[in-house]
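USER:
I would value a second opinion on how I read folds in token form. Give me a protein, with the fold worked out from its sequence. Write it directly below this note and I will take it from there.

ASSISTANT:
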Amino acid sequence: MTTPFLTVRDLLRYAVSRFTQAHLAFGHGSANAYDEAAYLILHTLHLPLDTLDPFLDARLLGSEIEAVMKVIERRAGERVPAAYITQEAWMHGRRFYVDERVIVPRSFIGELLEDGLQPYVADPDEVGAVLELCTGSGCLAILAAHAFPNADVDAVDISADALEVARINVADYALDDRIALFEGDLFAPLPQRRYDVIIANPPYVNSDSMAQLPAEYRHEPQLALAGGPDGMDVVRRIIGQAREWLTDEGVLVVEIGNERAHVEAAFGGLDLVWLSTSGGDDSVFLIQAGDLPAA
């Protein structure tokens, strides 16, 4: 393959131009064309993902240039999210395996788990049981296992395909003895017990927004995105049943993306606490067990 490119710098410039020209949508790990191009090039060349400058003027083999060009064209031409190309996603310094069976991990709940949901959880070391609903790749269950080191974690998903990915990640982190995976609809497959913390990043995209999703998001399982006319179909069911699964001092934490207006329209009578994240104050809410409706 003959190309005008010789160095990493050449390929980086071309990739940024190609991605910009293609009007790609970002949000699956990178925020702009430059960061996405750098990540894909470094990954394809098996270079450290956090070290670009020393390699910018390195001359590449023809086979290396060809491999990078294929990745650039797959991203720009087919609009495939970068995480599906590399089969990995990063959250808070941790790597997770992903493929088209799960949505690309990008939850704000992950950053809230970094301090163990304090002050709403008084002592993370005292948490004995955690439940994650709609676990997908299992990334939040794994982050919860690290945030609450003495807790058993149950993780549920309705998709058998998604749970196959979650099993890979749980095994990668050697957490099989602490994380139990359940296939089924929300609480249905669980043995009766009480949890100190329930977290969920459920399908919440409303119907109008689903119809306008960029092409990148259409590569993801629609089952994990679509939340009905107002985005609240699954959230209603979680809130309606969570009280009977929480301890008296337990908390429910739910991520809802850009759907705060629909949340407040549906659950305006509940005492919702909106949590601050890097994405603002409108994406994640918390409810104390005592403020949830009786089942």
Remarks:
- Residues 8-86 form a domain with the Helicase, Ruva Protein; domain 3 fold (CATH 1.10.8).
- The chain has a mean pLDDT of 94.
- DSSP finds ten helices and nine strands in the chain.
